[in-house]
Amino acid sequence: MRQALWLEDARTNLITESENFGASTWAATLTPTRSSSQADPYGDTNAWLLGDNGTTAQEFITNVFVPPSTTVLATSLFMREGSTTAASGSRFLVFNNTASVTYGQGTVTWSSGVPTLTVDTGSTYASPEQFAGGWWRMGFIANGSTNAADTHQMFIYPAVSSTDVGDVYVFGAQVE
């Protein structure tokens, strides 16, 4: 495993319950499966297995947050390949509901436990960083500046396609 130091400015995570994807702050759309007490990248059991088992619509979870005005958002999420990986990949994104604008979006596909992160909207600020136990930290810089008066959300989709099923391990959601 390659070790690296990821230097970042000190900032505050805007996601509440960033490691508890079963908390009421993480709303479910349709019926994604959520299984707690999974091994996390630090050797504890705080990760979650998030799944999409429907073939007619996308199942996902969201967390509402309030950013400071005129902030460019950095977003990251720890992910590990699931037991039934969606062929379409998994996705995480930051969205402004009020303005109907996607600030940043990353799609992750897997090959033998190694992810490929494609930043569909926004820009990559680092290559996926490998951690113990098959975990990877992935992130992007969102496009544009925020407006604190608007409603913002982080979305996590275990499967990108509405006709695809699959699961992915998630931990440590971060928007700052």
Q: Which tags fit this structure?
A:
176 residues; mainly beta; Jelly Rolls; six-stranded antiparallel sheet; globular
Protein described:
The chain is mostly beta strands. It has a single domain (26-175), classed as Sandwich (Jelly Rolls), CATH 2.60.120. The protein contains no helices and 12 strands. It has strands at 26-29, 33-38, 47-52, 60-65, 74-81, 90-96, 101-111, 114-121, 129-130, 136-141, 152-157, 166-175. The strands form 2 sheets. It has a 6-stranded antiparallel β-sheet with strand order 1-4-11-6-7-8, with no helix packed on it. The chain has a 6-stranded antiparallel β-sheet with strand order 2-3-12-5-10-9, with no helix packed on it. It is globular.
CATH architecture: Sandwich
| Percentage of residues assigned to helices | under 10%
Averaged pLDDT, please?
Answer: 91
Distance between the termini: 27 Å
- How can the largest sheet be summarized? 6 strands, antiparallel
Helix tally equals 0
Give the SSE order as H and E letters.
EEEEEEEEEEEE
What is the top-level CATH class?
Mainly Beta
The overall number of domains is 1
Question: What's the overall geometry?
Answer: globular
CATH fold label: Jelly Rolls
User: Uncertain regions: pLDDT < 50 for 5+ in a row?
Assistant: none
Based on helices, strands and strand pairing, what is the structural class? mainly beta
Q: Enumerate the strands of the largest sheet in spatial order, edge to edge or round the barrel.
A: 1-4-11-6-7-8
Q: What's the gyration radius in Å?
A: 15 Å
